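Researcher: Go.
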Amino acid sequence: MGTRFGILGSIEVQRDGVPVDVGHAMQQRVLAALLADADRSVSLDALVDRVWGDVEPSHGRRNLYGYISRLRTVLAGDGTTLARERGGGYRLTVDPSLVDAHRFRDLSVRARRAATDEQAEALWREALGLWRGSAFAGVDTPWFNAQRQLLDGERLAAQLELVDVRLRLGQHDRMVSELVARAEAHPLDERVIGQLVLALCRCGRQAEALEEYERARRRLADELGVDPGTALQRLYGRILAGDPDLSGDPDPAAARVDAPSADEEAEDDSGAVLNPVTGRQLVPRLLPADLSLFVGRDAEVDEACQLLSADGPGPLTLLVTGPAGVGKTAFAVRTGYRLASRFPDGQLHADLRGFGDEPADPFTVLGAFLRALGVRGGTVPAELTGRIHLYRSLLAGRQVLVVLDNAAGAQQVRDLLPSGARCAAVVTSRTTMAELGCRRLPLDVLDSATGLTLLREMLGPDRTDAEPDSARSIVETCGGLPLAVWVAGARLAARPHWPLAHVARALADEERKLDELAVGHIAVRASLKLTYQGMAAPTQHALRMLALLPGPNFAAWALAALLDVDLSEAEAVLDDLVEVHLVQIGSIGATGIRYQLHDLVRLFGRERADRDVHHQDRTAALTRLLGASLHLADLAADTLSVDFQGISQTELVSWRLSPADTGHLLADPLAWFTDERQFLIEVAEQALEGTEAAPAAGLAAALTTLFQVGGHFDDWERLQNRALKAALSSGDRYSAAKLHRCLGELTTILDRYPEALNHFEQSLLLAEGQGPTYRAGATAGLAYVHRLLGQYSSAVLHFEKAAELARQAGNVNCLVYATNGLGVIDLEQGRVEAAVERFTECLRASRVAGYRPGEAQALRCLGQSHRALGAYPAAADAYRQAVAISTDLGDRLTATHAACWLGDVLVRQGEHRKGRRLLAQSLWRYREFGNLWGEAATLYALAEAQLAASRPALALRRAEAAVRLWRQIGSHTWLAVALDTLATAHTQAGDHPAATRARDEAAELRRT
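Model: Structure:
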């Protein structure tokens, strides 16, 4: 039997069926943390975080080494090893099939691929039989809790899949009790309700089935303000119509209970990923634009579509291989569009840049995919394993096509492949990836006839027919490589007066001069060199400079910085490059044209830059690019005026565009950032690898406002942590102080308060001896966290200090923020009139200074004050103004802060349905962003709304959820408020002892 490992329940190890003592609880945690990533490296920092979370003891790492050493001894033998990796992490080498969680996932994949329902039932039962209780039972750290939640979701998905299988097998009469219990546990899950309704109907209990549907419909309307999804409504209609296919006969097609489609699924209590306005899953459409000129691949496209459309166990993966320039990307995109209707739940696409300077890593790509699938902000897991699990869970029941372009090898794509049985993937690569299990489709170069067709499409039949020999020579000299033919054709198309013979002779000459590049590259390089030599010197220099950019996508202002010219001159040069097809129009964004440089053109330009541009000139060009990026980002953030840090980055700017060009680009600063976000991140990361740590860190800090407004928390944390590490390594205390302050703001938004306190405190330590500018923002942020935690004396002390520093620094934004914080403390401690006075002053100061976020915050807090006084119309008016301002700024999270309380006062004014709908939308939004404090506040307001409607059972569920979250957050003030509501709900439900316990706990919290 060997050694087996269990984490789906208590943590256990068995050898030949006999339990093995793996040590005390902390040592078991270390083992479980490694088992979760069996046969993967886990860094030391990650291991410490998993085992202790925020409460690492003073000798935690020393203890960890001891646990590792003892585990090595216990686990020795049976092929299991625990070794330290070169990078400092640890790897537990063990067959994943011996770990119950990994075996559960493997069995789930096999069950979805099973050829028959009988086989699927057996596999699902085996998978679910591995569970012995709650995963990682008895372990309570943030990482383990998050993993437990993910596994619980996968377990529920497996249970629902098994129910579908059993319904198709006609086992409905043995399932009703189980389904009733599950429906009670998940009363808003439409798939669960649909399974119960179908089972009741097939048991001949149509009246009960209709009653169950009606109960679900009322519950969805009352709690979420939505109607049942299309799938559940369709089932209801079939029952009413007496559809004979819903009889008790085990007809698999008739008995199938489809989960709601991507456009039908409604919200449930698990926080499923939904569109926050419609309550439906988001459908990503990420394929690039299809090329209008696509020649000679019809048979291969048909074959690819046939392979990916075949009925089978799935998911299917197709690997498209071929040399550089053979047209793999265009082929994959064309195939994706042909198959779009077969994958109605969306198409994901990523350029993995496998052969570029910085290949895309799975961690980053998964983050982009999860956001495209609807996961927002802080709910994107912070570790690779969590992202993989969530990605697979989201795709498990969907029909999604994943296109992974330009992959270097199997390791880069393995974690990105979908696991859903009805999903498929197209991977393109220059390598054959022998270790990847998939279908393969190699693309060869074009034959002469097809190459001539491509050239004819570009030049017109008259020119090619007039010089057939020269046309054939061009195609043959290009080796039939589509990119090479395209470049040569583009050169001729741009010069209609040139004879084809001229290019044919020149191209042949260039080919003879080539060095020992691979055959495919010879044709491309020959064509590129020919085009390059025909360009004017300034255009050649522009191509060399563009090759220095950190990525292939860019706007004209980036070239302006590289060339030290104005925007119009850069655009004119780009027009020349577009004309000869060395640069392509990538997209038309809100702020103008974005251009694209093919990776082979970029490689050619890099070779020329290395040969023809002095190192000092290359460095100067990149310095100008960094300066322009920093200037634009800092000015965009200042224009939005969302942040209160008050530290300008202008002293770090080495180059900037003219005021006119800058004003043109930043007419809509948020739209500009949306277009430029990824490029700015790449510029900062490129600069962090060099010697200019201060301006690179300045750019990372300048992006704070833009990350915050757009909800790009993952990018925010990754970039600024990297910048902070660079600043500390170089001894740049001022940059490190700024970045600690910014990361404190991020971790506050994400409800990670111990981290936030540490960041703000470190910022103040690093800024010691500096003027008030550096210290005001960090002091205000520190005060805010103390206020959230109910530590009012510390909060008041720091808010007052922040206000004093802000006055000295002339930082109106920070002064308003600190004054507003003092007002909130007044309000929460019952001094409403004093609070109103502070909020009114904040509103006046914000309007005078044009600080619109401060204006929205003051209005929101005035709304809270009016609410506390029972002046609900005035409160609603203030909230509406706050929502409008935040929405106009593009700050959806802050708009939700006001919308939540607007829903609450609407309920208090008697507009129950409208108020509950707004609260439900706020709940979705907070779950999108992973904002626990907001989610807890909304659940509290929903509990109050249900009490107002005399629904104590529903109020209990909401109040209990709010209490759990505020316990987790550690906010004693609001925990006491929620306990009061919970006590009222218990009283209405008739459970007076429970009401007394809740009320006593609230009183005790207020005394401490």
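Model: The first strand starts at residue 3 and ends at 6.
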